[in-house]
From TrEMBL:
Gene Ontology molecular-function annotations: metal ion binding; metallopeptidase activity
Taxonomy, superkingdom: Bacteria
Protein name as catalogued: Zinc protease
Gene3D superfamilies, sorted: Metalloenzyme, LuxS/M16 peptidase-like
An individual GO BP term: proteolysis
Signal peptide: 1-27
Peptidase M16 N-terminal domain segment(s): 53-173, 497-625
Family stated for the protein in its record: Belongs to the peptidase M16 family.
Keywords: Hydrolase, Metalloprotease, Protease, Signal, Zinc
Annotated Peptidase M16 C-terminal domain residues: 209-381, 645-821
Lineage: Bacteria, Pseudomonadati, Pseudomonadota, Gammaproteobacteria, Alteromonadales
Amino acid sequence: MKRQNKTALLAVLLATLSGVPQFSAVAAGQDNTAFEKINIAYQQFTLPNGLTVLVHSDHSVPNIFVGVWYKVGSKNEAAGKTGFAHLFEHLMFQDTIHRKGEYFLPFNKAGAVGMNGTTNLDRTNFYETVPSNALDLALWMESDRMGYLGNSITQQLLDEQRAVVKNEKRQGQLHPGANVYARFLKNFYPKGHPYDHTTIGSMEDLDNASLADVKQWFKDAYGAANAVLVLSGDVDLTTAKDKVTHYFSDVPAGRPLDRIDQWIPELSQVKRDVIYDKVPTVSLNRVWALPNNSAKDTTLMELVSRTLAGNKNTPLYRLLIDEKQLALGVQASVNASDVSSIFSLDISLKPGANIDEVNQLIDTTLKKYFKDGPEEEQLKAINLSGEIELLRSMESNAAIGTRLIEGLTQHNDPLFINQQRQWLSTASPKDVRQVAQRWLDKPYYEVRLLPLPKANAMNGNVDRTKLPAIGKFEGKVTMPPIHQAVLKNGIKLVVAERHNLPLVDISMQFATGSLADQHYAPGVAAQAFSMLAMGTKKYNMSELAKQMDKLGVSISGGAGTQNSGVSWSGLAEHLDDVFALAAEMIRNPTYPQVELDKVITHIDSAYDGYERDPMRASEQVYAKAIWGEQHPFGKIISRAEAKQLSRTTIQRFHDHEIGPNNATLYFVGDIDLKRAKELAERYFGDWQQITPSPLAKIALPQGDVGKIILVDAPGAVQSHISVGHAVAPFDKDSAATQSLMDAALGSGFNSRLNMNLREDKGWAYGFSAGISNAPTGDRVFTASGTVQTDKTAAAMLEIKREISDYVSSRPITADELQRDKDSAIHSIPQGFTNNGAYLGSMINADVYKVPYQRVETATQRLEKVSQAQVEALAKATYKPKELTWVIIGDLSKIEQDIRALHLGPVEVWDIYGHQVR
């Protein structure tokens, strides 16, 4: 199912750490009042068939995270059987002898969220968060596929999912650097090592997978004794025991899997791999092996990664980016796995930088680090930020359940987190220095990724004949108490009180954005907000980063079209210090020239990548095709225009467009209006008013309707399709109808477009459609996705047919409407489990000019939508005869077939929207 793309050098290999947490314990001497609420309680039991069960009870939100971790991953695959674990992940969502139809449908109807499955080197997992009244459904579904899928797999199902997986593999290969990860596994690990191949496997092995092979894989790997089940949320131990025993006791136990338990790669000398691809800049990556038999060392290496290259105040960042200006980015990461772990260092070089010089500087920095180690203050800052992240994660039953089950499956201790917190909180600079030298002062594997030169069981009594009835749905969203005030200088305050945790989320929103660029220069709004952290009158960029680390806070800005903002969050007890820092950044940025020069360099690098990879142009070319070249939404900014930014222009934008009288300050969390007003007055009360530029009214689209635009991507193994047209502005009265109309056609997993191109045809990994959000002006309906090259023209016909049928011969059915209505209604409460969700809802309410409490009536508005209303709105909205197409692919293979369709006039454009022919 959904999976991270593991292609951008090896940094993607080091995603969210499974064995090393991105949190730590409270530093010695630190006030830990806020962290006393960190208490992850659980209970554990095992069924006679070997199924291990973890239960965490928290009745504050009426939902339950249900997760099943199977201790089987790509490491368990024999030669010639690569990709089996991942292929089987897909098959686990297919029919069983007791259940037919799409796996997600019952869950959608129940209002479940977060349903998915993933596979990695060590394990395969499946999970969902369901309303409390649907626990029986989740347990029935999970136990049914655990116990009975093997006898249900048919040749047709195998062929269908094999095609989906192959398209997923092709889609991953579209991106520059896509083969780096597979090459790393092959060359870093010795032949025969469990990690010497990718999780997705080879095309040859996938093609050779027989029905007998697949059935045997299920029998060997998916027994109850090889699985762990976690229930986290609104459930008690007694209920959990009764229901799990009822549904899982008849599942066969299976047998333990034979495996290699430890094999740490050893290099006698540096091993260097040079790879060329369509990347914009040179990248340098080093990888060292780490032990799997010393969890403490692997844990402490996370401190090494964060103090060596984790932020702007670390030695490699300062040396390579700030002082020598040889790099655009520096990252160090740890990835903990069962058989062996790795430490990775990734450097993205500045164009023209000498890679050998960078290598020498890395060696020099490492030697100094081995001698001096990190500073004590750095470790304290990391500990604080980590504890805040841990505290914040406790708002999520899914996060807690995942933490417990990964602790058990990887370290035989659900609360292994506490051991890691203890190691991290007591680690001294000397400890960190010594562990770094122990594992990094030895030969390593190096990848140089270079741009291509430019050239042309027991007897059960479960009724498996039908799904369990879903209990009565009782979930609802209630907005917290909201209070408002206005300061004398015009700043509007909106405060929502949620006192469950000592956290406050804050956002200062301004009524300005890229629509104001026309008065300055292209991209000025984006840079004015994104560069706020690069220096102020009081602090330079490094000092700002250090202050944020000290407070355990992140303050960031971003610009939209008509609304932009700066957001931060922190512990309630630190709000004075956090507000002082945020106010300094918002009111007094200096936009240092040295940092702007780095931004300009990044712009060059970004355009290099854009020009080497035509697939990146889909959004820009499609926007121009719909809106027209003269429209602000349709203009494709050239490299030269993007680089026209000057410090003076950015500062002028800040001084004229960012001020108190076009600002709203939102608070959500452990705070009341009195405290919020006190903070706002203290840090923003004397801010002088401005006269912002009026934002131009959004003009009507000016693109040519009905054209087919082709962009050449020589050698592409898939084609990217974008198709659609402009639609009417947002209407709050028909918003609920529109959301259900969208869901059936293209925005849901079970939508017609996705089911057709992914499930029925096997031509795409996924295909979706929907109408863009915008508070004013026309919007855009878009259907988009990638399809295999030889099916491009046929896919276009299918897309057009689905849209045409939806407004004529096959309008939405009662079953489709009820399915999507149930899913939408039941999932609404799942989206409101943390401060950030309420903050986003309040901001959107102001942007769309609706009441803050509008979300409380969402259920009623959705329930009232009728089949006739959806059908009428669809006919008024979708225009199958006015579709504009943008197809990016290998024109030598697809152009002739597309022209033969005669769907409209065909033009060939380049990636900047210039007509080639």
